[in-house]
Amino acid sequence: IELQVGYLDVLIDVLDRIVQAQETRDAQALFDIALDLKICGDKREGKGFLAQNLKVPDETLACGRLIEVWRKQWDWPPPQDIQQNEAFSLHRIAAALFAQAAELDPIGMSKAKFLEGLSYKNNDDYAEFARVMLDYATYYPDQPFADDALTELGWYEMAVQGNPEAAVAYFQRVVSDYEG
Questions:
Q1: Which of 41, 62, 116, 125 is packed most tightly, with the most Cβ within 10 A?
Q2: Alpha-carbon distance 134 to 173, whole Å?
Q3: Global confidence as pTM
Q4: 65, 7 in Cβ contact below 8 A?
Q5: Containing H/E element for 170?
Q6: What pLDDT shows up at residue 9?
């Protein structure tokens, strides 16, 4: 295999940033890396709010060419397998880093916990998505995204579980607990 240094440099840079943040237990750095990876995954898949509303050029993201490392250097995974291959998912990596950031600084990084859940949703891992959103709604009821977590749980109950009664219960909690 002939490696192109530019592609390998991108991969090494992202991995170095992750290792450095983990070694120094830097919750903010983990959050920032995870957000870069989530945005990159959103843009690649055309999913989520970030993909549709952020006008961030690919080259400004730390992971902007990370996908190319796998596709062009090693032709792995084959394009038809990308959606099924969890090891390739930038959303799964982002979710793990968001979880680490939230664990290091539970209150300061409450947004990381919420974005961890959205990363699982973007990866179509609805069981983990629901678990994280329920944890967020339970443990962070006074944080800014608590009503959003309940709304996401309502969506999950309606769209994934097919349970409109449970969905309505979550939506009613948003109205009754978070007026205004």
A1: 116
A2: 13
A3: 0.74
A4: yes
A5: helix 164-177
A6: 67
User: How far is it, in rounded angstroms, from Cα 134 to Cα 152?
Assistant: 9
Are 109 and 27 within 8 A, CB to CB? Answer: yes
Quickly count: other Cβ atoms within 10 Å of residue 149's Cβ: 25
Mean pLDDT in order along the chain per 10 residues (180 residues): 56 77 90 83 64 48 49 45 50 87 91 93 92 96 94 97 97 89
Contact (CB, 8 A) for 136 and 146: yes
Concatenated DSSP letters for 24-52? Answer: TT-HHHHHHHHHHHHHHHHHHHT-HHHHH
Could you tell me if 70 and 77 are in contact, meaning their C-beta atoms sit under 8 angstroms apart? yes
Taking alpha carbons only, the member of 25, 42, 9 closest to residue 115 is: 42
| CA–CA distance, 60 with 2 (Å, rounded to integer) | 26
